[in-house]
């Protein structure tokens, strides 16, 4: 596929771009607090839910730093794609999930992390 055509990039690559956009936006405000935090995308969550997760498929997870490992936020691509109606809806869902996980990591409400949280819903 020529690089000038939209199909040149895979769905996974386009999803990664949405996560990067959300992270970059948050880092403008929270750079110091997020310093060293790793962000990742996985296709699906592991089948064993975390003890604090109840019902439903998780859309993302936050792993606080522990034993020398940096804090990590993981966003799950397939569950989010399944919930989105279109590309714009997917971008809003990804943004909200990233905001929720950053809020969890920072011990704040999602609205404190980003006042636009949930606007598109």
How much of the sequence lies in strands comes to 5-15%
* Helix-strand topology string: HEEEHHH
Q: What class do helices, strands and sheet pairing give?
A: alpha+beta
Number of strands: 3
Radius of gyration: 15 Å
Flag low-confidence runs.
none
Q: Describe the biggest sheet?
A: 3 strands, mixed
Number of helices: 4
How many separate structural domains? 1
* CATH architecture group name: 2-Layer Sandwich
Distance between the termini: 35 Å
CATH fold name: Zincin-like
The helix content, as a percent range, equals: 40-55%
Dominant shape: globular
* CATH first level: Alpha Beta
Mean pLDDT: 90
Widest beta sheet: strand line-up: 1-3-2
Label this structure with key terms.
4 helices, alpha+beta, Zincin-like, 3 strands
Give a description of the structure.
By secondary structure, this protein is an alpha+beta fold. It has a single domain, classed as Zincin-like, CATH 3.30.2010.20. It has four helices and three strands. A hairpin with an 8-residue loop joins strand 2 and strand 3 (72-76). The protein is globular, with a radius of gyration of 15 Å.
What is this entry, summarized?
By secondary structure, the chain is α+β, with helices and mostly antiparallel strands.
Question: What's the helix and strand layout?
Answer:
Layout lengths: L10 H24 L3 E5 L17 E4 L8 E5 H7 L3 H20 L3 H4 L8
Parallel strand pairs: 1-3
Antiparallel strand pairs: 2-3
Helix pairs in contact: 1-3
């Amino acid at each position: 596929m020529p690089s000038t055509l939209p199909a040149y990039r895979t769905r996974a690559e386009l999803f990664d771009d949405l996560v990067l956009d959300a992270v970059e936006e948050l880092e403008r405000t929270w750079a110091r607090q997020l310093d060293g935090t790793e962000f990742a995308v996985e296709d699906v969550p592991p089948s064993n839910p975390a003890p604090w997760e109840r019902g439903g498929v998780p859309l993302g997870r936050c792993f606080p730093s522990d034993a020398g490992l940096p804090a990590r936020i993981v966003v799950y691509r397939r569950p989010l794609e399944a919930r989105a109606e279109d590309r714009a809806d997917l971008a809003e869902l990804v943004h909200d999930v990233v905001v929720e996980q950053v809020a969890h990591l920072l011990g704040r409400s999602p609205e404190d992390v980003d006042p636009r949280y949930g606007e598109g819903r």
